[in-house]
Amino acid sequence: GIQVEQSPPDLILQEGANSTLRCNFSDSVNNLQWFHQNPWGQLINLFYIPSGTKQNGRLSATTVATERYSLLYISSSQTTDSGVYFCAAEGATDSWGKFQFGAGTQVVVTP
Amino acid sequence: DSGVTQTPKHLITATGQRVTLRCSPRSGDLSVYWYQQSLDQGLQFLIQYYNGEERAKGNILERFSAQQFPDLHSELNLSSLELGDSALYFCASSVASVGSGNTIYFGEGSWLTVV
User: Fold this and answer.
1) Contact at 8 Å (CB) between B89 and B8?
2) pLDDT digits (tens, 9 = 90+) for A24-52
3) Given B55, B96, B104, which is nearest A33 (Cβ)?
4) Of the residues A31, B6, B40, B51, which has the fewest C-beta atoms closer than 10 A?
């Protein structure tokens, strides 16, 4: 099945800073999503982005499917951005609906 | 609120026992997924159902089973529980129709502690 790797594993930011999180995947994808897991454990859907670029407020994401990576940008970070960011991919050759998650990037935003 | 409802939110049980976790998908969603999140294994895909039928299987133990009922709610049954089964169990759902993509939405999870 598809392999998903995220980097960096940990990120400490000062409030107001910008950052880029990366997700590499080993195969063509039918589906790629970014999630934020808050400190209470909730998994919040950020982007459905198998290709192209999307923006939602201070967050944006770009997936370059041909080069098998996706980037999540956080601008003007706030303490509420703290948590773990996951990338999940559904490989083109995997069973439909079988999402593989990366290990996540732990983000801590300090005041 | 994602619209995916999971019960119970917290559960403490003893080794060797059996528990059932329940999930109601978002209105209109036909696909239900179960994931396990533990500290050492990360988020692991367990199983997917689509409109009552098993669609994809991941790293689900033989002691675990699931089903999706005609009203589309799903249950995950965990039996002969071991300490290592302590984890956060997520249910997710999606519309999963051709052409709409397959955006998945997660419930708040069921925290299972085996003592």
Assistant:
1) no
2) 999 998 889 999 999 889 999 999 999 99
3) B104
4) B40
